[in-house]
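Give me the fold.
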Amino acid sequence: MLSSRRARFAYVLSLLTALLLVLGLAIVVLRQAVMAGPAEAWMMAGILAVVVGLPLAMVLLPVISWLQHRRRAWSIIPHAGGNVSGVGQ
């Protein structure tokens, strides 16, 4: 894991730039496949789903997990020694 804040920011910035470049290339390739015909377009769409979708999932799924963890950390569970109001009524 990257230790400094600047290194993490540079990593995220370069990762987003790379994803945008891959997405732009995917759009160009898919447009050319559509012009070649419907069968080629469907085959290219399947390939692009893996080539673009997998790196995007590798970025988005940890972010979603982190957001869910942050939301759960501030839920109604009290700190040690506290009572949950309304239980047992």
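Residues 38-73 form the longest helix (36 residues).
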